[in-house]
Amino acid sequence: MTEDIAPAVLSRYAARSAQVSQPLLRLWYAISGETPSNDAWSGEEMGVTRRDEAVAMAQVTRRYLLIAAVFFSYMCLSRIFRETGMNMVILAVTSAVTAVTAIVFQRLSLRHRDDPRLPEIGSGIVNLLMIANPVAYQLLHFDQSRMINFLFLFIMFAISGASFRVLLASSLACYTAMMTVGMAKMPDGMTVYAWTSLGGLAMAIGMGSVVRLTLYRAVRARVVADRLREEAQMLADCDVLTALPNRRSFFRELERNLAVLRARKVPFDLALIDLDGFKPINDLYGHSVGDHLLVEVGERLRQICGITGLPARMGGDEFAIVLAGQRSEDELKAFGAQLCDALRQTYHLSGVNANISGSVGFVHCDDASVSTSQLLERADYALYYAKQNMRGAPVIFTERHEAEMRDFSLVDQTLRGSDLDAEFSIVFQPQVDIVENRTVSFEALARWDSARLGVVRPDIFIKAAERSGLITQITQILLSKALKHMAEWPEEMRASFNLSARDIRSATAIANICDTVERSGIDPRRIEFEITETAMLTDFDQACEALSRLKVMGARIAIDDFGSGYSSLGYLHRLPVDKIKIDRSFVVQLVKHGTTLKIIKTIIDLCRNLHLECVVEGVETEAELNNLRQVRARYIQGYVFSKPMPAGEVAGFLATEGERLSLAG
User: Fold this and answer.
1) What pLDDT does residue 62 have?
2) End-to-end CA distance of the chain
């Protein structure tokens, strides 16, 4: 009966019914011996109105009107066949008017469900017409035995009244009609009927109160159940922190848009968002500030999307947006730029001013044959491309990315089926002290000559290995090879070796690296482990723990590609760092912009004050080298001295360097 009534309306209706019939409820509890709850005596706690009461009873009233229409249609036909003359006309018309009125109000209330007045008005009018039927019959064919029909009407009104006032008004009208007919037809015998009808009236009002009390109890239980179900649904579909839809809601919305695409050819766009620089803020200022930041990000996404898209939190600092409808590439780029600009604005968080950015990967979906996993894979690749090449900017997945992704997948599958120990090798590039004019170290660089694919570029296979998880296995293979070659070098010569983010995040990987170094017999002080800023900031606490363990072993630590990520002096002084390598991106701009040289000088001076070595990598020309001499750069790595060389050429390179130094001396 109440299955499609809103819980709030049900609760308000129940309290209102209890309030209206308060005296009778008190009498009922006194007779039954039950103890009423406080809520039974007052409906004010639930804010009940007459409108809410009518809405709650609407379904009962609609069914009541439908039954009345059917019954009085039958009565109309019965009058036509059983009555004659004017009696037939009066009684048939009375029944027909009752039936038509009932069906009209029933249909109107169905059509206008939001208007609770129609069932109440309709039931009141139909009740009066129902009273008119026995009145007309008794006036035309008085039958004392049929006076009981008025008592039946009392019961009908008690059960079906749309509101307590309709019940009361209909019952009083029925009592008045019965007494009027009785006094007109049998004035001497109405004493008994008067008392009987009063009992019927009291019974109707009492039964109506009991019905409402019973309904109230059922409704109260339903309200509690619905409220708990709504809360559980909200927790299941909504991110508790940001109040955005969660991962589950996102996938449901994604599937819905795919269904619309397949059915009606309506395209849509998908965006995956990853915050750049969130981890340092969360680690530096604490989780409360980090949570506040995520809440602000959620609010900005909600404002940017408006009614055009559904933003969702996928977990951590990852978000997603489903943009329904058709839009051009330029419109999507404009939306992405607006989105990134909004995320880049300063966040004011409980006394902390924070700045982050967001990388965004977009994919346009207009192909009905695409699957959810394919869409997410493409959007994820666009996001990955943005983070690697265009941090804080949007990237739209294109056919070129599709080709790269296929190549990436091929590389990934080939890596998994290759003899890694046989196919991987090491080359070395010198790092030169231009003050003393000597090589002080070599950087070990990975090379892969695949039996299936041939020579694969390092930037391709390293990314594939990192994403597949094979990088830790490759690290062990390459480190063993590098240490084996170092055994043939002069004892003062060092080598630097790159570690990936996965290596840093894995305590097992760090333990294996330490074991490999110890088994090699190489003095750990001759080894430098290089990590990038991005790898370091992915999980700063774990990075500190991993680097500290390597430092305790005796190895040196270098920060690679300094300046290309989100450098922080606050982080720098907390890490056990011995060396900083300035990214080639600065060197490329060296000749074009004088400001770049000042930046490099500032970094070199910073390293000198912190007692850190500073290597400028990627130096290729004499012009670049001369500019670096001006700012007192000391350690240089790049083609200007040597390209990466196989291990077998290192000894010859050092011998030639020794001859050159002796000649210079």
Assistant:
1) 82
2) 104
Question: Is the Cβ–Cβ distance between 244 and 301 less than 8 Å?
Answer: yes
In angstroms, how far is CA 33 from the centroid of its own chain?
A: 53
Q: In whole angstroms, give the CA distance from residue 240 to residue 249.
A: 13
**CA 483, 489, 495, 497 torsion-angle sign:** negative
**What residue spans define the domains of the chain?**
7-231, 247-397, 428-664
pLDDT of residue 61: 79
DSSP letters along 334-368, please? HHHHHHHHHHHSPEEETTEEE--EEEEEEEEE--T
Proportion of the chain in helix, strand, coil states, percent, rounded to 5: 65, 15, 20
Indicate the helix (H) or strand (E) that contains 644.
Answer: none
Given a cut of 50, the residues of the chain with pLDDT beneath it are: 1-50, 566-567, 661-665
The Cα–Cα gap between 595 and 614 comes to: 19
CATH topology for the 428-664 domain: TIM Barrel (3.20.20)
- Nearest residue to 462 via CA among 496, 432, 492, 503: 503
Residue 432's H or E segment, with its range, is strand 424-433
pLDDT of residue 311: 93
What does the pLDDT read at residue 283? Answer: 78
Tell which CATH architecture fits domain 247-397.
2-Layer Sandwich (3.30)
Tokens of 10: 């049900």
User: Measured between alpha carbons, how far is 79 from 140 in angstroms, rounded to an integer?
Assistant: 13
Residue 498: how many CB atoms within 10 A of its CB? 22
Task: With 0.70 as the threshold, say if the pTM is over it.
Answer: no
**What pLDDT digit, counting tens, does each position of 593-626 carry?**
667 788 888 888 888 888 899 999 989 988 888 8
CB 301 within 8 A of CB 391: no
Cα(555)–Cα(559) distance, integer angstroms: 14
Q: What confidence score (pLDDT) does residue 368 get?
A: 84
Helical (H) or strand (E) element with 137: helix 117-140
